């Protein structure tokens, strides 16, 4: 048995050795390996908190419900979805007034005064817009002799704008007809019982076309236009004018820019006493403007060429400085000052619009502003009340005035003073309280020193204006204004001397009440104190005059 056991153990060891060798060859052998044992390395483990309570085992929820989902097929005959890409457009809200492109105003009052006004503006098309207006207002009876002091005014206009990517083209056509009667006579004179006053009708036709850039905040801005004005009256006055106006500015930085303004006026006036006159006027104004913080400074020049013929005139070419500055010392208080010379363009149309009872003129002259120096203070209180007060001192040549014609006292003559010194004291205020009240006021006092005339005929010595706007409710708007003027000296041919006209006081009230978004009513009252105001000698204005009516938007 021992031999058999030895043989069995020998075979077993031999088989095990072969098996280990085969397994080692299949898994690979480790050869030439080194193992390093470091005694100084310490492994540290965090302290494990001890659980003192065992988490209870929650019962397993059971449900007796069975959820069965039944799918029902639905068949709809829908067309395939069509996607049309479009550029995003932002919707800008607009006021209710913009929903109605047109409005009509109809009214009537005493002194046989109809009022008709129609306006229509089309802005729906993106590339252009246009507007049309028609207005007629008449006073077919007046303060002296009924129809002898009538007047009426008619205006028709058309304007439009064509927009392009970077600029716009604009134009305007306008016709005005203004009719006045020379009613400056004595109606109590028995010899004038059947007198019919002569009527003078002004016809004015204007055309204007221009180009301007759209982006006004760009570095370079420009605006240029040309125009024609044709004017005539019922007698012999005719004046045609060709105009070219342009302006451009370029911003060097956020604080500094340069600008240039140019004006060209070519007129051919004619009247009973002159014919074939060419009055040319050209003016260019280069200027540099600096604005930073509370400082505003502009410095430039007025360069003028004009060909009026006057006594002691040295040249048709003029160069004057133009400097203006203002500085806000504090948030609500500042000072300003300026010094400027200029030649102020004056045409027959300007004179007759100032005094519609002007007769034939002998000569038309521009006003030369040799010196105009001004200084003052301005500021704001509590962000609501703003004010300004100052004084201006000037020296002028060929300043115009009006005197009654000694032969035909119904009309006025145009006269000039060769050397006029003027001091003007002025102040103005503006106060706006919340959204329902606004106050504006201005006062001026003038002191004239003349060379050729006895007085500053038909120019006021002082002026005062006061405006009030009330909006007690969203539907009611009230305007209450007062205009005062005094110290007017007139030449009276009857006494061959001067007369001081009574002070002018005109109180004006207007109210608008909105019934609906489309309909509103209005009422206007003029000269509510019933004053016989005379802006020009022997021409009293209408007494209490009122008009009421309806406004319709469409």
Automatic annotation (TrEMBL):
<dbReference type="InterPro" id="IPR036942">
    <property type="entry name" value="Beta-barrel_TonB_sf"/>
</dbReference>
<protein>
    <recommendedName>
        <fullName>TonB dependent receptor</fullName>
    </recommendedName>
</protein>
<dbReference type="GO" id="GO:0009279">
    <property type="term" value="C:cell outer membrane"/>
</dbReference>
<keyword id="KW-0998">Cell outer membrane</keyword>
<feature type="signal peptide">
    <location>
        <begin position="1"/>
        <end position="24"/>
    </location>
</feature>
<keyword id="KW-0472">Membrane</keyword>
<keyword id="KW-0732">Signal</keyword>
């Amino acid at each position: 048995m021992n031999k058999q056991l030895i043989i069995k153990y020998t075979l077993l060891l031999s088989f095990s050795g072969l098996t280990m060798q085969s397994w080692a060859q299949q898994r690979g052998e480790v050869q030439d390996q080194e193992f390093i044992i470091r005694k100084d390395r310490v492994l540290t483990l965090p302290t494990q908190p001890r659980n003192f309570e065992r988490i209870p085992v929650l019962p397993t929820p059971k449900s007796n419900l069975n959820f069965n989902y039944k799918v029902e097929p639905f068949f709809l005959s829908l067309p395939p979805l069509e996607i049309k890409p479009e550029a995003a457009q932002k919707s800008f809200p607009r006021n209710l007034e913009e929903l109605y492109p047109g409005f009509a105003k109809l009214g009537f009052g005493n002194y046989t005064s109809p009022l008709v006004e129609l306006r229509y503006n089309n802005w729906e098309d993106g590339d252009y817009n246009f507007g049309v207006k028609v207005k007629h207002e008449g006073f077919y009876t007046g303060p002296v002799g009924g129809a002898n002091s009538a007047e009426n005014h008619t205006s028709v206009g058309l304007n439009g704008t064509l927009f392009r990517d970077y600029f716009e083209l604009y134009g305007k056509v306008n016709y005005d007809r203004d009719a006045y009667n020379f009613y400056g006579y004595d109606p109590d004179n028995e010899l004038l019982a059947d007198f019919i006053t002569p009527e003078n009708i002004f016809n004015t036709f204007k055309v204007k076309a221009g180009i301007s850039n759209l982006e006004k905040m760009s570095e370079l801005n420009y605006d240029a236009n040309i125009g024609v004005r044709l004017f005539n009256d019922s007698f012999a006055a005719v004046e045609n004018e060709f105009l070219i106006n342009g302006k451009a500015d370029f911003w060097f930085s956020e604080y500094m820019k340069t600008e240039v303004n140019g004006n060209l006026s070519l007129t051919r006036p004619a009247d009973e006493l002159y014919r074939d006159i060419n009055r040319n006027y050209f003016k260019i104004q280069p200027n540099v403007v600096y604005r930073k913080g509370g400082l505003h400074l502009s410095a430039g020049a007025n360069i003028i060429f004009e060909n009026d013929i006057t006594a002691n005139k040295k040249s048709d070419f003029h160069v004057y400085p133009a400097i203006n500055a203002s500085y806000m010392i504090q948030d609500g208080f500042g000072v300003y000052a300026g010094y400027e010379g200029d030649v102020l363009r004056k045409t027959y149309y300007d004179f007759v619009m100032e005094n519609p009872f002007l007769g034939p003129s002998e000569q038309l002259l521009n006003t030369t502003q040799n010196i105009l120096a001004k200084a003052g203070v301005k500021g704001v209180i509590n962000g609501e009340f703003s004010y300004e007060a100052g004084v201006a001192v000037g020296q002028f040549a060929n300043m115009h005035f009006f005197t009654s014609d000694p032969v035909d006292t119904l009309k006025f003559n145009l006269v000039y003073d060769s050397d006029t010194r003027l001091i003007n004291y002025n102040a103005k205020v503006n106060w706006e309280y919340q959204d329902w009240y606004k106050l504006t006021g201005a006062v001026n006092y003038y002191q004239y020193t003349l060379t050729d005339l006895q007085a500053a005929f038909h120019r006021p010595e002082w002026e005062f204006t006061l405006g009030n706007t009330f909006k007690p409710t969203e539907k009611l708007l009230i305007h209450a204004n007062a205009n005062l003027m005094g110290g007017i000296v007139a030449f009276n041919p009857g006494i061959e001397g001067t007369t001081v006209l009574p002070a002018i006081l005109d109180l004006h009230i207007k109210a608008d009440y909105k019934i609906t978004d489309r309909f509103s009513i209005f009422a206007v009252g003029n000269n509510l104190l019933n004053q016989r105001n005379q802006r020009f000698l022997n021409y009293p204005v209408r007494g209490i005059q009122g008009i009421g009516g309806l406004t319709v938007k469409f």
